[in-house]
Write a structure and sequence with these properties.
The structure is a single chain. The protein has 299 residues and is an alpha/beta fold. The protein contains 9 helices and 10 strands. The strands form 2 sheets. An 8-stranded mixed sheet has the order 4-3-5-6-7-8-10-9, sandwiched between helices. Strand 3, helix 3 and strand 4 form a beta-alpha-beta unit. Helix 5 packs parallel to helix 6. The longest helix has 26 residues. The protein is globular and about 50 Å long.
């Protein structure tokens, strides 16, 4: 079964292609088009998974990316392989990253009760993630690679970048984007000086009402980076985007990167047009490095 090609077990690093298709709903398709964005995910299915050698995958990515470098995406907690494929496609669409999108799938158990298991498997995957980032920069060149992490995956990105910076301090990535990062705010503040020099830009998306991050803060005892309201004045060099003014696009408030068209437009301007926050429409400055994204602004 393609959706079960990879489970939650640890394994060697492999590469390949995951193909996702939309269900054919026939006459009721117009009703599906009118459904809330967070229901669109249920209309996707994994058609097939093809394992390929890494050289072949990167060669194909170079051909399809053309003049842009790759955008490497790392998923979060509670994301089994099949769900990960579907949500990777949704992010690729929402942020318009077709042709240069690469998904790093680590072995999440895909079960809500296994948060600590997922943490362990994420940490186990960090050397492979760091190796992948370094390999992409070597293959595509300095200042061409974007790295995107969501939720617990954003924690993995931060820790992997710390290893990358230690091993290759001269490396230069383009945009690092942390979406709803399940990262201890204070720990991020301490690690930031080590990783900021290797990225052209670093952007954090945060909001109020993010239920999974609120639970994580309770569990871990400290605020999360993805929660709005933290004092971000100490994060010099980081552009923080507060999404609290946007309408909720789902029951958890945690998946705006794939469901919110407004967030998708902002990501496109950042990742495809290389626009800083002060140049992107809809962003209203709150302080030197904090902006609020207002709803309803054309992009």
């Amino acid at each position: 079964i393609p959706a079960e090609a990879y489970g939650g077990e640890r394994s060697d690093l492999t590469a390949g292609v995951c193909r996702v298709e939309e269900l054919d709903l026939g006459r009721i398709a117009p009703l599906a088009d009118a459904a809330p964005n967070f229901l669109q995910e249920e209309l996707l299915r994994v058609r097939d998974v093809q394992e390929l050698d890494t050289v072949t995958v990167l060669h194909g990515l170079a051909a399809s990316a053309r003049d842009r470098g790759p955008a490497l995406y790392v998923h979060g907690y509670y994301i089994g392989f099949e769900k990960g494929c579907r949500r990777a496609v949704l992010l690729q669409r929402n942020a318009d990253l077709a042709g240069r999108f690469l998904w790093f799938s680590w072995p999440s158990d895909g079960a809500a009760a296994y948060y600590t298991h997922d943490e362990a498997d994420l940490y186990w995957s960090l050397p492979d993630l760091a190796d992948t980032i370094i390999a992409l920069e070597r293959r595509f060149g300095s200042g061409t690679v974007d790295v995107i992490g969501h939720s617990l995956g954003a924690r993995g990105v931060v820790l992997a970048l710390a290893e990358v910076a230690n091993r290759r301090p001269e490396i230069q990535l383009r945009h690092v984007v942390l979406l709803a990062p399940d990262v201890d705010f204070g720990i991020f503040e301490r690690i930031l000086p080590r990783i900021l020099p290797i990225a052209e830009t670093m952007t954090v998306y945060a909001t109020t009402g993010d239920r999974p991050l609120a639970l994580s803060a309770q569990l871990n005892g400290y605020p999360r980076l993805g929660e709005a309201g933290n004092d971000v004045s100490g994060l010099a060099g980081v552009e923080v985007i507060d999404l609290s003014d946007l309408p909720s696009e789902g029951p958890t408030g945690h998946l705006y990167h794939i469901y919110s068209r407004a967030v998708g437009k902002d990501l496109r301007r950042l990742l495809n047009a290389d626009e800083h926050a002060d140049a992107r429409p809809g962003l209203v400055a709150q302080s030197e490095n904090l902006w609020r994204l207002r709803p309803g602004v054309p992009g």
